[in-house]
Design a protein that fits this description.
Layout: H1 5-36, H2 40-59, H3 66-86, E1 108-109, E2 112-113, H4 115-129, H5 134-137, H6 150-168, E3 177-181, H7 187-199, E4 205-209, H8 210-221, H9 227-239, E5 242-248, H10 255-270, E6 274-279, H11 283-289, H12 292-301, E7 303-307, H13 312-318
Parallel strand pairs: 3-6, 3-7, 4-5, 5-6
Antiparallel strand pairs: 1-2
Helix pairs in contact: 2-3, 6-7, 10-12
Amino acid sequence: MALSNSQYDQIMHEYEIRQFNSRRENDKRREYVYAHIPGYKELEDAVSTISVEFEIERLRGADRGKEVLRKKLASNAAARRSLLEEAGLPSDYLMPVYECPDCKDTGYIGNEKCHCFQQKMISLLYEKSNLELLTQQNNFSLLSEGYYGGEDLKHFQAAEKISQSFIKNFGEDYQNLFFYGTVGVGKSFLSICIAKELLDRGISVVYYSAADLFRQLSDLAFDYNSKAAMESLSECLFNCELLIIDDLGTELESRFVNSQLFTILNERDLRRRASIISTNLSLSDIQNRYQDRIFSRLVSHFQLLRLSGQDIRLQKART
């Protein structure tokens, strides 16, 4: 499960705030009890006195045993609880209040991340992926094969099967997927379905439409003041566990786009980071539009999945 250092620090800072608020609330409650319940502070102060006295006796060789100490401390605790209850407060009024009692707002149970940390991580990954809204409308629970027939159905079923295998083996086998075919036949849908399944496992996924990605890269590359932002975006594109580039071919054609696309493909391959690309272009269109080295990288390092059929959006509009 991949988080950048800044993302990890962001989550841990939230836990620090939780702990600070818990301590502040506990201090306020204790001050209230000291001011309004006579005798409570004296009983609380006596706890350390009892423990110190028993330790001194033990060092002098007159140890009366741990059971005696336990009984005295238990009697003191019972007296404090009784005072709280008589004042109309719950007996655990001065116990720390945690948003997550399982990890006590530390984020960890032992050396393992708590379930609350896992959920924060997944939420943050969704936020950074550009997919939060898209996954609500594109997920396997909404998948329907009813829009396909004949060879089109066979193509979709094959792509669906490979998508499920991609998800199952993610992190164990290095794979890349390339969905291509006509408009509205489920290419983006399957890409986002895969993204949702992996995000829910805490895997870092970054999604961009090709037009938006190369526009951002162009804006940053030619602005000297955006050098740090360019480096941050590049690091994200190169290192996220799954990168999805949707609608390749909708961006403006330029040598800059060719250069950036090759760099992304090459860097991710060197780092063994998975990618999914979808496009409405045919393979011959891809070969004509992009440099040979890009086309070669796509056909040799990606599993090519062709989808066909009628535009599903138009089919839905007719019903």
